[in-house]
Design goal:
The complex is a heterodimer of chains A (about 220) and B (about 350).
Chain A lengths: L2 H12 L5 H13 L1 H17 L9 H23 L7 H31 L49 H12 L4 H12 L15 E2 L4
Helix pairs in contact in A: 1-3, 2-3, 3-4, 3-5, 4-5, 6-7
Chain B lengths: L2 H40 L2 E9 L2 E12 L2 E8 L6 E5 L2 E6 L4 E6 L21 E11 L2 E10 L6 E7 L5 E7 L5 E11 L19 E4 L2 H8 L6 E4 L7 E8 L8 E7 L4 E8 L9 E5 L2 E8 L2 E7 L3 H10 E4 L23
Parallel strand pairs in B: 6-12
Antiparallel strand pairs in B: 1-2, 1-11, 2-3, 3-4, 4-5, 5-6, 7-8, 8-9, 9-10, 10-11, 13-20, 14-15, 15-16, 16-19, 17-18, 18-19
Classes of the chains: A mainly alpha (about 220), B alpha+beta (about 350).
């Protein structure tokens, strides 16, 4: 698979137009391929900018430039289509328009991403290739949560407690989380189980003991 | 009518229409929230999503099927830990390949799919503002953006991008009271098939040599016979929280029956688990976390008390520290469980 096909596949995944089976493959590849991961990060930043997404940290000037770049490209593509493009290659055309827009926007957004990575390096827990929606200083444009307009920077970091957080033996905590998920709102249930399934950065505590451990399934 | 009177009338009309519009928007948002919960619980779906938390991004796949009133669900990490959670009927299995451990729990047979869910009612509205913020395009689809805004620091809020056609949440953000995004889930791909094959719920984890933790059958029998001896209750609760459920259950890895109390404000819920401190195990104490969920453990009267919930750390600490053993009288911080909620076996004194 060449670069163009990979980009096309990634874009389809981003647009929710990729079959689930392929989606799983791309997702796995994302974890191995740094370039692809970076590309995904750029798409996410661009998408967020285009949607003026609340809560996603973006420099407003950069966001505006991204939107302008994309809208300029989009209108150009439409004009181009009127001026003589045929339906001979609809598949290619489907990709050309967003790709052209994304390419232009990527020039702008990559500056933001690169800039953000520099800042990520200062943030604990920052992960290469995952600055997508996770880093820079945000200011929601359309939604402001909470009773007061705070000037504190937003982040994807769980609020830091003043005291050290213990990591409960995972087996026992997992039991509790699973049991709790059963009595939670469906949305919370999914979040709880996702967190349980996800890797924790400090998830190397000893496994819990059991009074009924066996060597295999019954 | 004088000019002043006309101004007053105009002002009154504007205020009244503004209040009506605001109430209407809240009702709409509440309706979207209810429809979303219904869709998440009763629909078949299969999707890949990105879970963003603490600067980490993890790709996961969720498969959810409802057939003949029974739920099957599989949640798998496509990268990272490779962990899987599989629920088929009343059995919940958590595969932790990184720990070489499998947890198996059995739940009581469900009566209705939506029976025990917290409900967003009038009292809940005292602690959250619901707003339909805007209509937006996401993943090429029309969505309603709903904001659930907490009014204090005891609970989290949400921003939800709900697909208009299917009422499935395509993107969700968990936020604190200041609007900081704590966790985000966004689908990259989502389908809603008419049916899903049984094979999709088979785990991919090779469990050769794994340790299996499951409920002790003797313990389950004790729970079934209602042999809990102490009634636990919370002396104080954060505003809006009330006892909504109480049960005793057997848990894998626990020496005896575990008391499970649920406190909810109608949207957020906190579970408190109480079990006898094991002789061989040092009791858990202090705060802990799983993703955006907080936990806090303490020891009360020789029992380990752990509060868990998708709420700020202060809330679980507050509730865990408020728990006490009550040898006389009904439980629940002055609250009576609402009718229709299933209570566990009645405790003996």
């Amino acid at each position: 698979m060449n670069e163009e096909q990979r980009a096309s596949q990634l874009s389809a995944m981003f647009d929710s137009e990729l079959p689930a089976s392929e989606c799983e493959l791309v997702a796995r590849r994302l974890t191995r391929d740094e370039a692809l991961s970076a590309q995904w990060a750029r798409y996410a930043v661009i998408g967020a900018a285009m949607r003026r997404e609340a809560g996603v940290p973006l420099d407003l000037r950069v966001a505006t430039r991204v939107r302008r770049a994309v809208s300029a490209e989009a209108s150009f593509s439409e004009n181009d289509a009127k001026g003589g493009a045929t339906a001979a290659a609809p598949r290619a055309k489907r990709w050309l328009r967003p790709a052209a827009g994304l390419a232009a926007a990527a020039l702008v957004a990559s500056i933001a991403v690169v800039g953000l990575r520099g800042r990520d390096a200062q943030l604990p827990g920052a992960m290469p290739g995952a600055p997508v929606v996770a880093s820079n200083a945000p200011r929601p444009e359309t939604v402001v949560l909470g009773p007061s307009a705070s000037l504190e920077p937003e982040s994807y970091v769980v609020p830091v407690s003043s005291e050290p957080v213990n990591f409960v033996p995972p087996a026992q905590l997992a039991n509790y989380v699973v049991a709790h998920s059963e009595v939670s709102m469906p949305l919370s249930r999914r979040n709880l189980l996702s967190a349980l399934v996800a890797t924790e950065p400090d998830d190397d505590a000893a496994a819990g003991t059991s009074t009924d451990a066996t060597a295999g399934p019954r | 009518m004088t000019v002043t009177r006309r101004h007053h009338w105009l002002l009154f009309t504007l205020l009244a229409s503004g209040a009506a519009a605001s109430a209407c928007a809240a009702d709409d948002a509440k309706a979207w929230l209810a429809r979303m919960n219904q869709a998440l619980t009763t629909r078949n779906y299969d999707g890949v999503f990105f879970h963003v938390h603490g600067g980490r991004v993890e790709t996961m796949r969720i498969i959810h099927r409802v057939r003949d009133g029974g739920v099957s669900e599989r949640l798998v990490s496509l990268d990272g830990s490779g962990r899987e959670f599989v629920r088929t009927g009343t059995e919940l299995v958590c595969y932790l390949p990184d720990k070489r451990t499998v947890l198996v729990e059995r739940r009581p047979q469900e009566t209705t799919l939506l029976g025990n869910l917290p409900r967003f009612d009038d009292s809940t509205e005292g602690f959250y503002d619901l707003k339909e913020v805007e209509r937006a395009r996401l993943m090429g689809r029309d969505t309603r953006v709903i904001a659930v805004l907490p009014k204090d620091d005891f609970r989290y809020g949400y921003r939800l991008w709900i697909d208009e056609a299917t009422t499935m949440p395509l993107k969700t953000q968990l936020c604190d009271a200041r609007g900081n995004v704590i966790e985000q889930i966004q689908f990259a791909n989502l389908s809603l098939p008419r049916d899903i094959a049984d094979s999709e719920f088979r785990p991919q984890v090779d469990t050769e040599g794994f340790k299996w933790l499951r409920q002790d059958s003797r313990q389950a029998a004790r729970v079934a016979s209602g042999s809990t001896t102490i009634v636990w209750r919370a002396l104080r609760l954060p505003p809006g929280f009330r006892l909504t459920l109480r049960s005793a259950q057997a848990m894998p890895g626990s020496a005896g029956p575990v008391e499970h109390l649920v406190f909810s404000d109608g949207l957020a819920s906190v579970s408190v688990f109480v079990e006898t401190a094991s002789d061989g195990k040092s009791p858990m104490t202090g705060p802990a976390r799983v993703g955006s969920s907080s936990a806090f453990s303490t020891t009360v009267s020789g029992h380990q008390v752990t509060a868990v919930g998708e709420v700020p750390p202060e809330t679980v600490r507050f509730i865990a520290n408020s728990l006490e053993a009550d040898d006389a009288g009904p439980a629940g911080a002055g609250s009576v469980p609402p009718p229709g909620l299933s209570l566990g076996a009645p405790p003996r004194r």
